[in-house]
Batch of 2 targets.
Target 1
Amino acid sequence: MDYLLTEEQVMLRDLCRQITDEKITPIAAQLDKSEEFPWEVVKVMAESDIFGVYIEEKYGGMGGGLLELCIATEEFSRGCAGIALAFSATALGTDPILLFGSEEQKEKYLPSIAAGKRLAAFAITEPAAGSDASAMQTTAKKDGDHYILNGTKHFITNGGEAEIYTVVAMTNKDRGARGASIFIVEKGTPGFTFGKKEDKLGIRGSATRELIFTDCRVPKENMIGKEGQGFLIAMKTFDMSRPGIGAQAVGIAQGAFEASVKYAKERKQFGKSISSFQGIQFMLADMATQIEAARALIYASARQIDAGSTKTVSKDSSMAKLFASDVAMKVTTDAVQIFGGYGYMKEYPVEKYMRDAKITQIYEGTNQIQRNIIALNLIKETSKS
Amino acid sequence: MNIIVCIKQVPDTTQVRIDPVTNTLIREGVQSIINPFDMYAIEEGVRLKEKYGGKTTVISMGPPQADAALREAISMGCDEACLVSDRAFAGSDTLATGYTLAMAIRKLKDYDIILCGKQASDGDTAQVGPGIATQLDIPQVTYVKKIEDVKDNHATVERMTEEGFEIVRTSLPCLLTVVKEINEPRIPSLKGRMKAKKAEILSWKAIDLDLEEEKLGLKGSPTWVSKIFTPPPRPKGHILEGDPEETTTKIIEALKDRLI
């Protein structure tokens, strides 16, 4: 389908596709096994100006927006969703600065992120605070010109590898959701250490670690926005980031789909290629249709955000993430089915796509939370009229 | 330092087929790419500029579509591009091509190093690079796998040979043809691609160059191609199994049978 992309967006897509085909796909299976962080690919992405696609030109970026971020994420995820996260999770960690950062914070952090010199990460999840983020235990106590952070964040994508962390902590526990604030914490700050690296089902080329804060002193100018705005900023960040997760899901589905079509044409049973059987044809047709629908929803929601239309952004970006991730799970499961016994083996790429797809239904708000958001907004919208 | 890189646009070799009836290349539907060996020349040209400063100019002789190849070279970091294109050049063999390119390079003036890929993937002659050097009357080093050093108006390079490599020191200006061992061509950046899209490409016709008409195109091309064909696939080898003494006897017999 023609999404009427600009010449620059087509150029970006072609570049990301080239990086994926030449640098990502060939090492995807190896990194899935070894769980190494893809620094070599990060270097190529950086040299190709990719880390700056969604950052304003005055901070060294390319001046694009969320649609550009989604195009790049989708293409990289087509090769390996884990490797793609070095890029897309950096965008998530950067979003709070982009959305609510002061001019000084933007000038200090964005140029090195746009240049791909420093990766970023976003930290809200804690062992006892997943979907219920308000149950978080990490605190930030004011002490003169500093805040002192204490607590543990876990399941943090890019944890340990990133240099810049945007961390949500409670500045006033008594105020509940209104008592949280967001801080920029740099790797190397005394009192900031890393815990265990997770051994995961999928996205194994991405690092997921614990962040541990022990009397970690952060200068007060590192607070993003105002004290108490932490949850608001986090929610606005997720509104922005959900289409990106959707794009990751579409990329995974697209990769699995392409492998399936190729295999179905090559694989012979009963004297014919299995692509000649209607049972397989219908599966492929459904896969292609679902992927296209998911992509259309993501591009539409990203374009809406880029155009500054934010009225229904929470609902729309939740729909995009929910739909695309469910499509990814369905399509990758069907891809394994088309490959049959071979699909279940690690020698072929589709079981990895299936493992990678699962996380997109879970992180940045489980799909049950997405449905909550959609329903809540539907009820709000209808009660106003 | 001024570097000139000569490139050729060729059909993507992974897609080329030969028409068995007419013995010509089937070009329809085949994508055009930069000759893969020239990609190494471009990368080396850009690296030399990054290391020693100066300017890298990319030049190609070919039809107007070669514009795309030149833009790709700019996206990789070349500063300027020049397309030498005219119907009068049609049918040029390696001699006429070397002559025409040499005259264009002469017009570009001030050059220190000219880089070419070791050969083109379509013709595989490896003659145009040496031809240019001969026409310009400058030293040439072929099959270069490393440029060690450029200083005091000299370049020290390593060139591949059948047995190993030679270290050659040559005065500048010189022409080097490079092999794939020399580097890994970069993926052009987004900024590079955007710059390439807008870049102005110098375009020269026959009339713009000080050329002798009888040295151009078909007229200036003594080479003629009698036949192009796909060689038959090599027959499978025969493996002799068994203990060494037995198989040795068998080999000797087989060789005798073939009167070797």
Note: The first strand of chain B starts at residue 2 and ends at 7.
Target 2
Amino acid sequence: MRTIGSGDLIYIIMAVRWTLLLSLVAFLGGALGGALVALARSGEYKWLRIASAGYIKVFQGTPLLMQLFLAFFVPGLFGWSVDPWMAAALGLSLHASAFLGEIWRGAIEVVPRGQWEAATSLGLRYWPKMVLVIAPQAVRIAIPPTIGFLVQLIKGTSLASIIGFVELTRAAQIINNATFRPFTIFALVALVYYVICRPLSAYSKRMEQKLLVAAR
Amino acid sequence: MSYEFDFADVFAAWPELLQGLMNSLVLSALAMVIGMVVSVAGALGKTSGPKWLRWIIDEYIELIRNTPFLIQIFMIYFGLPSMGLKMSSNTAALLALVVNVGAYGIEIIRAGIESIQKGQIEAGKSLGMRPLQIFRYIILKPAIQAIYPSLTSQFILLMLNTSVCSAIAASELTAVAGDIQSRTFRSFEVYFVVTCMYLGLSVFFWSVFAAIERAFLRKPTR
């Protein structure tokens, strides 16, 4: 056991870049997957609707930690070895795809039927209709819950520490094992997460209020 | 695919798995009940308490909502003992879950209370209803109806969160999975089976919540 020094604090603070990078990768992966899930879920093909609904249910009905463990071990079945970074990025992306898919499906379906019909009667096919008419209206509704989920995702990256990826939480554990000052170290880490997440939460809440007022 | 599946070792450990499942179930249910009490108390404090109390509750909500559950559980299990507050891993897990769900529950309950329009309560008064009757027939049921979906999905998230408690070796399902894995090395098989068990738990809670809704919260038919 040794005392906690400024080097330790810098080590912890620097690890935040892995938390941010993992959050970013998972969010981008989740946005891509989520768009596909949302389109499948609100589309015309019954089997796609059922498959995407099943995907959402499974990911919303099992712990994120289990999803990360499986993302770590399943590629091994096919002979691919993944490191904790890849497993965490894969697991969190699949997780985010399900949640963002469900959020965006809701946003797509809130767009009034008349808008769909008007677009169709203007002779727009599926993609122009989606991109030019439905998406611009759905995006406005989807922003607050999407940012809200981003906060969940950033917090969720802390679980990557359990499968051995060295991000903020894991860095804190490593320093704690050497210095054994759990209260100071975890309070510091909590503060770092808070500083990242609080503005996002506040923004999401403000946007939501704005939409509520606009809807009245 | 050259991998050979071997579930035999995992299934052989079924008494442990079942025990872990029951522990997770009990831990979740306890945290839901206590968390509900905390949420209602907090919501009352937030809607009708003094200003300093509202401020404390607001800060508590923001602090918990903007930090990871894993860090909260570390603070309680590893951090508090250095201030002289020691507890077993299972107690710490329960406390962490309650503290966490409270921050979400308070806002949900508050939204329910505020969803009741003043005119409804005034109508009750002018019909000569007593305060308890007004609470029972006018406030309680519509308020619960309004928040039931968000409250129950919060409870499902709470149940899924119990798996994180394995990080402090609380005796629940994920910790059992870790034990079996380190003994048998059948990593994929263990976590696959345990993931299915969690899905089973979710389905169980979903159906319990749906049954409660059907029995008590059915909207009046016009």
Note: The mean pLDDT of chain A is 92.
